[in-house]
């Protein structure tokens, strides 16, 4: 059932998914079919609400440049491997959403002829307006960046209402909840507070980009069933930074 977009708090969103969201907790497979199915169902719920959704996918389940550098691979080449890995994850999500009859387009910041389209902001906006999910892969296309930077940059470019950062924890805490049982979840923070308290939400270049262009960020637990849907409907899930 399609619901009018006027009932939505956010109608155009960038969902940032880490590569690890495609894996299962405590499982060593790079891509887990249950995790993928769960994610796709969560996404379907907001597509049915008519949300214009774009996804920026990471590659922590496959390769991160910083890890490859530690085993002696040149950092630029290592980041190229990381970016290519996001395209692989993009293909996986594209396939999963398509199987659910969700119109989906995969774009890459690096040209990969015959496999996916090259990133084009104008085309992306048109696709979103036509209710097609757009997956942005290969980050921003340059080494020394992360897919968090890509999420913030693409959000600015396509004029998204918010960046939703899906994580494995419930939001931003006063300290690491795994190490400190007394840590408290923030429901709201300003960009300034995040910087002053040195809270690690995303890397600094991504975060300052969001701050400079006033893109709100919501950090939430993607594994909480229905969380994505509640957020676009305006419920207070996770931590809002604005
Ligand atoms: N990467 C890059 N430029 C970008 C985005 C990503 O070089 O614009 C590389 C980098 O090596 C990074 C890897 O791709 O470690 C995977 O991205 P990320 O670490 O953001 O994945 P996530 O942690 O979200 O799964």
Listed once per kind, the bound small molecules are:
uridine-5'-diphosphate
First-residue to last-residue Cα separation? 32 Å
pLDDT < 50 runs, ≥5 residues: none
Percent range of helical residues: 25-40%
Radius of gyration: 17 Å
- Overall mean pLDDT stands at 94
Task: Outline the structure in words.
There is one protein chain. By secondary structure, the protein is of the alpha/beta class. It has one domain (5-241): Acetylglutamate kinase-like (Carbamate kinase). Helices cover 36% and strands 17% of the residues. It contains 8 helices and 9 strands. The protein has a 9-stranded mixed β-sheet with strand order 4-3-5-2-1-6-8-9-7, with helices on both faces. Strand 1 (12-17), helix 1 and strand 2 form a beta-alpha-beta unit. Helix 5 (147-157) packs parallel to helix 7 (204-212). The longest helix has 25 residues, at 75-99. 43% of the residues are buried. Bound molecules: uridine-5'-diphosphate (UDP). Uridine-5'-diphosphate (UDP) is lined by residues 18-20, 58-60, 64-66, 79, 82-83, 86, 139-140, 142-143, 145-150.
